[in-house]
Amino acid sequence: MAISLGSIADDYTGASDLANTLTKNGLRTVQTVGIPDPSLALPDIDAVVVSLKIRSVPASEAVNAATKAERWLRQQGAGHVLYKICSTFDSTDAGNIGPVTEALSEAAGGGGVLVTPAFPETGRTVYLGHLFVGGQPLNESPLKDHPLNPMHDANLVRVLARQSRGTVGLIDLPAIAAGAAAAKAKLDALARTGATMAIADAIFERDLETLGEIALETPVSTGASGLGLGLARALVRSGRISGSATGEDVIRPVGGLSAIIAGSCSKATLRQIDVAERVMPVLRLDPERLLAAGPDQIAAAISWAGDRISAGPVVVAASAAPETVSRLQSQYGREASGHAIETATSIIAAELVERGVRRLVVAGGETSGAAVDKLAIPAFLIGPEIAPGVPVLRTVGNAQGDMLLALKSGNFGGEDFFTAALAMMQ
Ligand SMILES: Nc1ncnc2c1ncn2[C@@H]1O[C@H](COP(=O)(O)OP(=O)(O)O)[C@@H](O)[C@H]1O
Ligand SMILES: O=C(O)[C@@H](O)C(=O)COP(=O)(O)O
């Protein structure tokens, strides 16, 4: 297996989002969970996305895991490695976008790294270094209330500089509109002044095509699915890849029961749960009782779902509105409450699979990571897209036999996402 493009994703939903974009743009792609065991048989592929769960861990841990993955991807032939971050730049002043990007760049011999979270298809655009989510600056968007990394500054040059050792430059839209050569010259000039990274503006896909072309001339880049689109199109245009992937053969039916687990507290997911409740049973976990009396609450949820799943899909949700989340966090702490809830939802997911669930939708990046780890799934093949950024996934090499999953970023999908996903997973 010699791949053309390697990627390290900082969470599992982000990995499936990127794998979806690469597949849609013609790259035969596999999503692995961590560095795969050498015994795992993978088909002939153009790209690998290694999913890590390093968005909200201490920076040194994230750097260590990412550099190991980079080494493995280079051994598989990757000439370029994309560090896949969230399109809403989810991170804190302690990291991990800056520290990981700088470490990957150093491992590849240094030079300026292009960084952009733009993903126009889902409304994420960057102008003069400022990130917009839909029509709102990042700090006014629902991301200001994220349970783990509330985002309070839309100026990404500033945000990235706070978490990095080196300085951070800007490649603005006029430089990008002037074409790949001009934008690359700007990146090189910034690197000569000591900048380790440069935030790149991008509003339209054509901007990302330009950025993809210049990123391919460097060993490392950092961005969201938009930059993945640029890199994939540049690879196909260069003739290095035939661009033949479709993903359609991945959704052969698996049968079994179906369920939805939600741990995202995003506005989009809260709405999707309300809408699903019109057509299927929804259990809303009580996170306060979950933290106070964990095992009893988990057992009660498994029993509730177990009584209903043979009749049709059910939703088990920890998700709550920002006021409720803050109340819980002030009592138990941000990380402790997040971690305890992820552990609970992952145990519930695993127990439901034990009871015959083979089609599983998980809402939330950290929530998905915890569930996939608990199920010990080694890798996924990428099927067709359910909604922008969310493909159907088929498991590879897991003990339970073939399953179909959808790992939904909290913010993605229309209000009927859950029924739309299950309709594509038979
Ligand atoms: N009711 C709640 N109160 C506090 N935290 C919660 C609650 N429900 C879920 N969480 C936590 O919020 C975090 C949501 O993050 P994540 O799953 O990555 O979603 P998203 O994709 O929206 O970022 C998880 O750590 C989850 O355990
Ligand atoms: O880039 C994106 O927005 C997504 O791929 C992603 O990373 C989402 O993260 P979560 O919202 O934590 O799932």
TrEMBL record:
<keyword id="KW-0067">ATP-binding</keyword>
<dbReference type="InterPro" id="IPR031475">
    <property type="entry name" value="NBD_C"/>
</dbReference>
<keyword id="KW-0119">Carbohydrate metabolism</keyword>
<comment type="similarity">
    <text>Belongs to the four-carbon acid sugar kinase family.</text>
</comment>
<dbReference type="GO" id="GO:0005524">
    <property type="term" value="F:ATP binding"/>
</dbReference>
<protein>
    <recommendedName>
        <fullName>3-oxo-tetronate kinase</fullName>
        <ecNumber>2.7.1.217</ecNumber>
    </recommendedName>
</protein>
<keyword id="KW-0547">Nucleotide-binding</keyword>
<dbReference type="InterPro" id="IPR010737">
    <property type="entry name" value="4-carb_acid_sugar_kinase_N"/>
</dbReference>
<keyword id="KW-0808">Transferase</keyword>
<dbReference type="InterPro" id="IPR050007">
    <property type="entry name" value="OtnK"/>
</dbReference>
<dbReference type="InterPro" id="IPR037051">
    <property type="entry name" value="4-carb_acid_sugar_kinase_N_sf"/>
</dbReference>
<dbReference type="Pfam" id="PF07005">
    <property type="entry name" value="SBD_N"/>
</dbReference>
<keyword id="KW-0418">Kinase</keyword>
<feature type="domain" description="Four-carbon acid sugar kinase N-terminal">
    <location>
        <begin position="5"/>
        <end position="229"/>
    </location>
</feature>
<dbReference type="Pfam" id="PF17042">
    <property type="entry name" value="NBD_C"/>
</dbReference>
<dbReference type="GO" id="GO:0016301">
    <property type="term" value="F:kinase activity"/>
</dbReference>
<dbReference type="InterPro" id="IPR042213">
    <property type="entry name" value="NBD_C_sf"/>
</dbReference>
<comment type="function">
    <text>Catalyzes the ATP-dependent phosphorylation of 3-oxo-tetronate to 3-oxo-tetronate 4-phosphate.</text>
</comment>
<feature type="domain" description="Four-carbon acid sugar kinase nucleotide binding">
    <location>
        <begin position="259"/>
        <end position="418"/>
    </location>
</feature>
